[in-house]
Amino acid sequence: MHTTADRKCISKYKVYMSERYTSLAPAYAVYYENYYPYEEIVEWLTYHGSVLTQRREWSYEIITATDETFVARFREISDAEQLRSILRFSSKTLEDFKLKLDIGPVYTSDMSQRKTQPEFAPCERELVFDIDAGDYDRIRTCCAGPAMCDKCWRFMELAVPLLILFCRVHGFNDYFFVFSGRRGLHCWICDARARKLSKDSRKSMVDAFNIISIDTGSVLRESYDHSNWLCRLIHDHICIRFFSQMLEEQNWLGGGVEKHLAKYSKESLLTELRRADSALLSSAPIFFFLHITLCIYSCLVAGGYPVTTGSAKNSDGRFASLLTTFIGKLTMITSSAARWTELELLIKDYDPILAAIRVYYTYPRFDVEVTRGMNHLLKIPFSVHSKSRKISVPFPPAPILKTYSIDTGVLQLGPLDTDDSLPRFLPSDAPTVDDLLSRHTEHYFKYRTYFSRIVHQVAAPYDGT
């Protein structure tokens, strides 16, 4: 038996362990009771009954009153009422509840048969892209790790017109974009043909758009080719529209760059550039400068671009001359925008170099395995992020395309792309469960209405054409 002292210790332990539960449960309970879009979610994921509900994997992350969390996988949902009964709970009785919902693929057999069917395997899944701000830590200077601000969001926004272009190139029409709830963006491509793609086909499709495939600091693999029509289109109509704003906000070319370079002679700097010195790469402005000079040097050495006449007798000499000129400019001007302007003037005859730099510093970092894999779980829209308490809401592309003056004729927009019923989405403006708990619901319901329009399009019966 427990003594009085034991019971007091246990009571304190439970109170301590349930602090997170106590904080989250009331808001989640109200959200699941009154605001979660049960009918729309199920209608979307079953595609008007064309997907067998018993073969679709649902997954829940569950929290207990003592703050334990665990994941339940390979669950099935038959209809909206069953989903409602699973999510609804009473915080007053300390019931476990679902922190978030993930969706997996459609399998060859029912969820209940997964242990008895030897050929139980995924056979259908939306083509998805999961883009995370954390993957931009090599180039973003405003935040790092799990942090996310509206400046970071520009990196996510650029992925929107790019993925619309991806869909147009591959003939997909049913897609939408969702804020992840904290620091990322999800793109769901729902065409019947997209859902049935093999892993190899998915990888082949994303590889063609995966221009920045490796960027570790010591290794960079950028496959931008200025002579390729798709690369040129991506640069000329998308990346260049974002670059100037990002350059100023991230201050990539600002700071005392020349102080870091002063200890190198021209000859030793060339050696360091060739080796991509890891110590220098640890500083974002330095990395930007080195990337520029590496591009210049590589192009000159390769002989791919004409070397203008001058005192230099070879490519190394020409490179050193350009470098000296540029460093001289850096000592007189300090802003990123002004330094970039000087660089553009300096290498104005080398458009492919400038284009490669713009693409590198703006282009999405794709997680190829998420897109390629058939059994990857992805958070369902309108889930709540338990740390930010923000709701994962879909948002329309139109305000983004307008903000950055994207040539919409090139993208061949569909009905959802031109929807301007909502303003430009920013993570700082995302609805939260606390808003709903306080009955500030108008903002949230605008996203619900937009999602209803999405479901009406993407879940429409497939006519086989």
UniProtKB/TrEMBL annotation:
Spell out the Pfam families in the cross-references.
Answer: DNA_primase_S (PF01896)
Q: What PANTHER family does UniProt report for this protein, alphabetically?
A: DNA PRIMASE SMALL SUBUNIT
Provide the GO biological process annotations. Answer: DNA replication, synthesis of primer
Gene Ontology, cellular component aspect: DNA-directed RNA polymerase complex
Q: Which UniProt keywords apply?
A: DNA replication, DNA-directed RNA polymerase, Primosome, Transcription, Transferase
Q: Which class of enzymes does this protein belong to?
A: transferase
In alphabetical order, the GO MF annotations are: DNA-directed RNA polymerase activity
What EC number(s) has UniProt assigned to this enzyme? 2.7.7.-
Q: Which organism is it from?
A: Giardia intestinalis (Giardia lamblia)
Q: Which domain of life is it from?
A: Eukaryota
According to UniProt, the name of this protein is: DNA primase
InterPro entries recorded:
DNA_primase_S
Entry's family note: Belongs to the eukaryotic-type primase small subunit family.
